């Protein structure tokens, strides 16, 4: 039977980085990376609109969702955003900060893939080979693959989550964990467009293309989560980074609240304007803070088409203000695995050592990257988790 010292399952962000870190530290015998894709790092290639948002300068444990929010702290402290950035600089890759600490390549995401591949010189990358399972054996593990079994002293599972099956996501990491009796937090789609009822779609479709900087919030139990970021009206409803962020926290049946002008109490501002410029229409008055088409639509929604601001009572202005500052919607679902950028849930961190990512009850077995129940916000955090968790495992194997 074919033998290797370390077999890494998955040639995505975490698997490639882990192999590179092992080789950079001097290697560890024969290191084999397996993936069923035709090319390595496919999600890196399409990430960040082709420019890869490869890290975030504001990385901290509070930017991640997990059943154990502190679990990620050790790995993140062991390999920081600045450490990855130093590698990017050494590789001569030009980058820029877009917003909120998000770092992107100036050129192409392929530069990041090339950098990862060059770091793992000496390791063997075998593509177009699917992994079917892992079992324990006296001397280590046997990995079942489409090209036959491979015996390994240690196995690193970096097979990612379930998002975008078309790109090769399988969720096999969860099956491997379950096969060893490790708990798995039920995976669900995150950073995903939410879907809305027909009545809301009718409101949104005519506004397709309009965008605002909004604050989207969500209450779950006693906890309110809010994100201020772009909100985009589309033919399919409402999307944009603010919606993607809140989607990771939203559960079916719950409401979200959108504040389209977060810094202004619109009802109060309209009452002030009523005294000074009462002859203008409410939509015109709203146009000071909202794009014209959106202002018109909101005023029409509140039955104020063609009216004069001066003729509106406080109650009408309050309704209008609430429609702008506290627009409450109940999404009917999400677009699911087809378009989700990440998977929330995964291998339960209670089964893993936070310093090494090793399965506590299975010496020699490691889980890294998105397969683990650690999921970042939008903005480069998920790659930073892939790098940091891979680095932690690479030091331990
Ligand atoms: P990843 O999914 O990258 O790799 C897993 C690998 O395992 C894949 O190559 C897959 O083919 C392989 N595999 C799975 N099952 C297998 C099997 N049975 N046999 C063999 N191989 C198997 N994050 C971020 O920080 N910044 C960003 O800009 C973006 N942008 C972005 C855009 C889009 C469209 C998506 C879908 C996602 C992002 N992300 C992101 C998220 C980011 O891509 C993601 O969190 C990381 O790729 C996770 O890295 P992993 O290595 O854990 O999984």
Automatic annotation (TrEMBL):
<dbReference type="Pfam" id="PF03486">
    <property type="entry name" value="HI0933_like"/>
</dbReference>
<keyword id="KW-0285">Flavoprotein</keyword>
<feature type="domain" description="RsdA/BaiN/AoA(So)-like insert">
    <location>
        <begin position="188"/>
        <end position="342"/>
    </location>
</feature>
<dbReference type="InterPro" id="IPR004792">
    <property type="entry name" value="BaiN-like"/>
</dbReference>
<dbReference type="InterPro" id="IPR057661">
    <property type="entry name" value="RsdA/BaiN/AoA(So)_Rossmann"/>
</dbReference>
<dbReference type="Pfam" id="PF22780">
    <property type="entry name" value="HI0933_like_1st"/>
</dbReference>
<protein>
    <submittedName>
        <fullName>NAD(P)/FAD-dependent oxidoreductase</fullName>
    </submittedName>
</protein>
<dbReference type="InterPro" id="IPR036188">
    <property type="entry name" value="FAD/NAD-bd_sf"/>
</dbReference>
<dbReference type="InterPro" id="IPR023166">
    <property type="entry name" value="BaiN-like_dom_sf"/>
</dbReference>
<dbReference type="InterPro" id="IPR055178">
    <property type="entry name" value="RsdA/BaiN/AoA(So)-like_dom"/>
</dbReference>
<feature type="domain" description="RsdA/BaiN/AoA(So)-like Rossmann fold-like">
    <location>
        <begin position="5"/>
        <end position="395"/>
    </location>
</feature>
<keyword id="KW-0274">FAD</keyword>
């Amino acid at each position: 039977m074919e033998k290797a010292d370390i077999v890494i399952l998955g040639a995505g962000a975490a698997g490639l980085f882990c192999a590179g870190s092992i080789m950079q530290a001097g290697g560890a015998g024969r290191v084999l990376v397996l993936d069923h894709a035709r090319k390595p790092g496919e999600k890196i290639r399409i990430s960040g609109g082709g420019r890869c948002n490869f890290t975030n300068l504001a990385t901290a444990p509070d930017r991640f969702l997990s059943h154990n929010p502190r679990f990620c702290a050790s790995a993140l402290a062991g390999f920081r955003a600045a450490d990855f950035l130093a590698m990017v600089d050494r590789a001569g890759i030009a980058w820029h900060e877009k917003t909120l600490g998000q770092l992107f390549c100036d050129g192409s995401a392929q530069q990041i893939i090339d950098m990862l591949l060059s770091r793992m010189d000496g390791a063997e990358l075998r593509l177009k080979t699917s992994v079917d399972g892992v079992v324990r054996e006296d001397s280590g593990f046997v990995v079942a693959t489409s090209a036959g079994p491979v015996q390994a002293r240690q196995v690193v599972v970096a097979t990612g989550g379930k998002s975008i099956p078309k790109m090769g996501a399988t969720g096999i990491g969860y099956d491997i964990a379950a096969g060893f009796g490790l708990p798995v937090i039920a995976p669900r789609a995150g950073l995903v467009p939410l879907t809305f009822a027909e009545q809301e779609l009718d409101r949104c479709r005519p506004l397709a293309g309009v965008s605002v900087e909004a604050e989207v919030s969500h209450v779950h139990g006693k906890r309110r989560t809010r994100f201020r970021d772009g909100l985009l009206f589309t033919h399919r409803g409402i999307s944009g980074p603010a919606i993607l962020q809140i989607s990771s926290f939203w559960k079916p049946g719950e409401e979200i609240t959108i504040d389209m002008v977060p810094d202004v109490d619109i009802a109060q501002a309209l009452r002030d304007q009523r005294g000074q410029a009462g002859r203008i229409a409410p939509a015109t008055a709203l146009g000071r803070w909202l794009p014209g088409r959106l202002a018109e639509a909101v005023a029409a929604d509140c039955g104020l088409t063609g009216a004069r601001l001066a003729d509106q009572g406080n109650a009408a202005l309050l309704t209008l203000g609430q429609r702008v500052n506290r627009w409450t919607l109940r999404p009917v679902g999400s677009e699911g695995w087809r378009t989700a950028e990440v998977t929330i849930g995964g291998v339960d961190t209670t089964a893993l050592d936070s310093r090494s990512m090793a399965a506590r009850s299975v010496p020699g077995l490691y889980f890294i990257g998105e397969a683990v129940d650690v999921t970042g916000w939008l903005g480069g955090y998920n790659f930073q988790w892939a790098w940091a968790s891979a680095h932690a495992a690479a030091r331990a194997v």
